[in-house]
Every structure is written in C-alpha cells, then in structure tokens.
Design brief:
The structure holds two protein chains of two kinds.
Chain A: H1 8-26, H2 34-62, H3 66-69, H4 76-80, H5 90-96, H6 105-110, H7 117-133, H8 149-156, H9 160-163, H10 172-179
Chain B: H1 2-31, H2 36-62, H3 67-70
Helix pairs in contact in B: 1-2
The chains are: A mainly alpha, B mainly alpha.
C-alpha cells in the first residue's frame, strides 16, 4: 500500500481522464452543447497531457531508486558490493552507514552535481537501456568518464572530517588538487576500494538484521 | 447530411477516445512495474497512443464545419405589428 502512495495522484488523474473520455465516447451527443465541448476538450486534451506529465515525473523519480538500477541483471554484482563487510570499501561503507539514502544509493553517488546534471543522468540511463537491450553491454561495466571529485565534495565539502583530515592537509597543494579534481579521491591510491566486483567471490558480506 | 457528419464525428471521437484510454491504461500499468523497461513502455507505447489520440481529437474538431453552418436554426421572422 505504501508503494502506491507516490503514484496515487497519477492514478487518480488517469482514472478521471478515462471516465471523462469514456463518457464523451459513449455519449457523443454531449458535445453538441458548449458544456459538453469544454468537457471533451479537457477529457481529450488537458487531462491526458497532465496525466502523461505526472506519469513521466513519477517514472523519473523512480529511476533514482536503487532497485531500479539493480533491475538490470548486469548490475547485480554492484548491488551485492554494497554489502561488503569492510569499511575501506567506499560504496559499502556509505550504504551500510546510511551516509547516502539506501533507496537511492546508486543515484546519489553517480549523478552529476552540476547544472543539467540530473538531465544528463537520465540520458545516460537511456543509453544504459539501449546497451542492455539493443546492443551488447561492455564487460566489465565501466564509467563513461573518470569519477569526478565534485560528486564526493557535494556532501563532504565543508565537513570537518574532510577539511581537517590529516592526509588531506599533508601539504597545502593536496587540498587544492582535491577540490579542483586534479587529484582523484577514488583513483589516487587513497579511497581506491570501490565496487571491486572482480573479487566479489573472495569478500565477506554484511547481513543486515531484519 | 447532418446525420452523416454526426456519425463521422462520433466515429472519430470513439477512435480518439479508444487511443487515449489505451495509452492511459499502458501508462498506468507501466507505473506498477518497477523496471527500466517500464519507462520505455511508458514513453514508446503509452505516450505514443496518447499522442495519436490527442492528434485524432484535434483533427476532428478542426475539421468540423463552423457552428453557424452546423446548426439548422429556424429562420427568425419579425413579428409583424398588428394594426
């Protein structure tokens, strides 16, 4: 029932539209009067457009969910890697300690925190669907571009643990390089344990208590 | 003549309505399916049917003859003043 709540307004508009359209179709004589014409105009044009926009919005919101990303079989090992029982694994420690919303774990770290970033993420998502169903997805899955520190700094910038971290302040240039994305957070030997799906079979996994 | 126009109007409205309702049903079903393909179904099938229905409806209303030609009002006669 809780799953239905976000789509309840969409379904309500869909139901109203269906009733109005059915009414006009079953009794076309209604359109002979001005009120009927207005009703038909709303039923055949305004309500369907509103319903489609609400449905689109609902789909876009759902595409941020972890379960959506893991819907493709190829992503299953990446979903499993969120349960690696080792705090040095960045995605796993973020997921398990709720540093990112668990139901939007993939999106939180893999969207672009820039202008039109959300839109670019959706285009990438469409490309993923194309690769999965109409082409051959590359194995192993790789990012299109090197991971940008901007995505880490979206949350960590200004945080005491980041700003006053001993390694981050080892020399003044280090912090400048991190913030300007010259020194990668994940591929400079600092936080390099990310999903590591190639070693999935050798790792210990956390089992959350129900 | 008028009757055949009404029949044509009814037929086109039924077609537009059928397309719109089919599109809405597809869109509603896609909302219950939490899978990447559901978005594709929503866009490529649902929205396409909906758009076809809307276009059919719009073509129907623009192809209708103007209202003054449609209505066969009885001529208005001026009441002659009785002496």
């Amino acid at each position: 029932m809780r799953e239905l709540l976000p789509i309840a307004p969409v379904l309500a508009v869909l139901a109203i539209t269906t009733v109005v359209v059915a009414l006009v179709v079953l009794r076309p004589g209604l359109t002979a009067v001005r009120g009927g014409k207005i009703l038909a105009f709303f039923g055949f044009l305004i309500f369907p457009v509103v319903a489609a926009l609400l449905g689109f919005e609902s789909h876009v919101e759902r595409s941020k969910e972890t379960s959506f990303c893991l819907g493709c079989h190829i992503m299953a090992p990446y979903g499993k890697s969120l349960y690696v029982d080792d705090p040095s694994y960045i995605p796993a420690s973020h997921f398990q300690n709720a540093r990112v919303p668990r139901d939007q774990a993939c999106y939180t770290c893999h969207t672009d925190y820039s202008i039109y970033g959300g839109f670019r993420s959706k285009i990438r998502g469409l490309h993923h669907i194309y690769a999965q169903y109409l082409s051959t997805p590359q194995q192993p899955v790789k990012l299109y571009h090197p991971y940008n520190n901007r995505e880490c700094l979206h949350c960590h910038l200004g945080a005491r643990s980041f700003e006053q971290g001993a390694v981050h302040n080892a020399d003044p240039q280090t912090m400048i390089d991190i913030k300007s994305n010259k020194l990668s957070c994940v591929s400079s030997g600092c936080h390099e344990n990310v999903h590591d799906v190639s070693n999935a079979g050798h790792l210990k996994y956390w089992r959350p208590q129900q | 003549m008028m009757n055949s126009q009404n029949q044509l109007l009814g037929k086109r409205l039924r077609l537009a309505g059928g397309l719109i309702i089919s599109g809405l049903v597809v869109q509603a079903v896609s909302l219950f399916w939490n899978h990447p393909l559901s978005f594709i179904v929503f866009i490529s099938v649902g929205t396409l049917l909906l758009a076809a229905g809307i276009v059919t409806y719009l073509l129907t209303i623009v192809s209708l003859p103007p209202e003054d030609q449609q209505e066969s009002r009885p001529p208005i006669h001026k009441m002659s003043k009785t002496p």
